[in-house]
Amino acid sequence: MKKVTIRIMPKQGVLDPQGKAIQTSLSALGFSEVEGVQTGKLVELFLEDSEDINKRVGEMCDKLLANPVMEDYHFEVEGAVRP
Amino acid sequence: MKFAVIVFPGSNCDRDMYHAVIDVLGMEADLVWYEHSNLENYDAILLPGGFSYGDYLRSGAIASASDVMQQIKAHAEAGKPVLGVCNGFQILLEAGLLPGAMLPNKNLSFMCHHEALAVANHETRFTTSFEKGEVIHLPIAHGEGNYFADDETLSELKMENRIVFTYANNPNGSAADIAGIINGEGNVLGMMPHPERAVEKLLGSNDGIRLFQSLIENWRDAYAANA
After folding, report:
1. Neighbour tally for A24: CB within 10 Å
2. Which of A47, B46, B66, B180 could be stapled to B191 by a disulfide with Cβ–Cβ 3.0 to 4.6 Å?
């Protein structure tokens, strides 16, 4: 069993109002050194290994997990785990 | 003219849509559950607002991957009208039937009030009952209605006159004040404001009726021309 960790983030230049709100709150708590905050999603998949695992996961991201209009994704495949 | 109102788990404007078509416009309509549906015998498809699948992953994303979407795509490819309102618009974007995506509102708030809209294109089959540039009032009710598209897509939409409604006072940060857009073929309209909630003067506005009337009149004309 493989574990795939997918990180989905807003594309550069796409407004991330949630990140902006977090930055404002951090600043209010005295952490004024924070110059930028970006929020995103982390998705973990558990699946059997296959030769085309990278291609298949890429397709999953393009078709459903990420929205290519506003998001970029990046994933890593780790071996031998149990969900 | 027979309408299908598609109901997903989490749709919540389906009955408003049904009420507008049945009671106000006097047309036929069915509430069609998204599973095991057959859309062959409908003249128009209405994708209502709400929170399909609890907005899991992204608004409209899960619904856009459901089986019924294949039928909706086939219906659209056949040139038949599809109207997506609010979450219905988000589903059309996620399904790739319209370009762009929805971001959270600029102020991060869920907004629910009437907005003034300009009819930017009154020549679509959904808008011929409006005057050119007319300002109408429809309610909005969304947390993610901040329309986003890259510059190339935006200039294409402008050049092809596919921006159908714009906000007079942009409430959510939408690019180019976009409240509603149409596909290149002119039969798939997506909009965040709710025409189905503005069909009775008593409830603040009946400007929404004319959108449905336009659709019906144009369908009748096309039907008569083909008969």
Report:
1. 11
2. B180
Q: Which two tokens stand for residue B121?
A: 């294109």
Which residue from B101, B107, B146 is facing A69, i.e. has the nearest CB? B101
Name the CATH architecture for the domain at A2-78.
2-Layer Sandwich (3.30)
Kindly report, residue by residue over B85-102, the tens digit of the pLDDT.
Answer: 999 999 999 999 999 999
Q: How many CB pairs under 8 A join A and B?
A: 36
- Asked about B94 being catalytic, the answer comes back as no
Cite the DSSP H helix spans in chain A: 17-28, 53-60
pTM higher than 0.90, yes or no? yes
For residue A42, list chain B residues with Cβ-Cβ distance below 8 A.
Answer: none
Place of tokens 């594309």: A11
Binary contact (A14, B100; C-beta < 8 A): no
CB pair distance less than 8 Å for A17 and B104:
yes
Beta bridge partner(s), residue B149: none
